[in-house]
Write a structure and sequence with these properties.
Blueprint: H1 2-40, E1 46-50, E2 53-56, E3 61-67, E4 71-79, E5 85-94, E6 97-103, E7 116-126, E8 129-131, E9 135-147, E10 150-155, E11 159-162, E12 166-170
Antiparallel strand pairs: 1-9, 1-12, 2-7, 3-6, 3-9, 4-5, 4-7, 7-8, 9-10, 10-11
Length: 171
């Protein structure tokens, strides 16, 4: 009789664990659905992500650099796919931190650059030495997906980017 109770208790425990696992799976599914729903609002918005390729669209191209320390003569050089220098943005002296910049598409000779992809390179003078600070660029979020339980954004010009790697979202 005691053995029957022990077997029944074990079945009851196994059944309880199975039900708890199904409940957790259901909660995970609800959570992932909420993540997708919340992330869908980002479609069409600008995401700031690591990278040095950006799209000039509507006469605007934007990004940011991360300065670990204060720097002098901070510059952003913008080049075409063929390597032609289109513009050089002088940001002057900057304190440590994230510094955003924009380019209006006006080239060094005063003409408007065509819309499309451009390469960016940042330099900063720190204690007399030229440094290359990390750079982020803005790109339009074109779609979202759930991949291996993680939300990823398809950012034009950057490909799929983990939501965890998005620095900022703006209009």
């Amino acid at each position: 009789r005691q053995r029957q109770m022990c077997i029944r208790d074990r079945f009851s425990t196994v059944s309880g664990i199975t039900e708890m696992g199904e409940s957790i799976d259901g909660l995970v599914s609800i959570y992932q659905g909420q993540q997708m729903s919340n992330s869908a609002a980002m479609i069409g918005k600008q995401a700031l992500v690591n990278g040095n390729l950006a799209q000039l669209k509507g006469g605007q191209l934007g990004g940011a650099i991360d300065l670990a320390t204060a720097a002098n003569d901070v510059r952003i050089e913008i080049t075409s796919d063929s390597g032609e220098v289109m513009a050089s943005l002088g940001l002057g002296s900057q304190l440590a931190g994230t510094k955003e910049f924009t380019w209006d598409g006006v080239t060094r000779d005063g003409t408007q650059a065509p819309e499309g992809r451009y390469h960016l390179r940042a330099t900063a003078l720190v204690d007399g030495e030229t440094k290359v600070p990390p750079m982020q660029v803005y790109g339009t979020v074109s779609s979202i997906q759930l991949k291996n339980g993680e939300v990823t954004l398809n950012v034009l010009g950057q490909g799929n980017v983990s939501f965890n790697n998005v620095k900022r979202i703006s209009q």
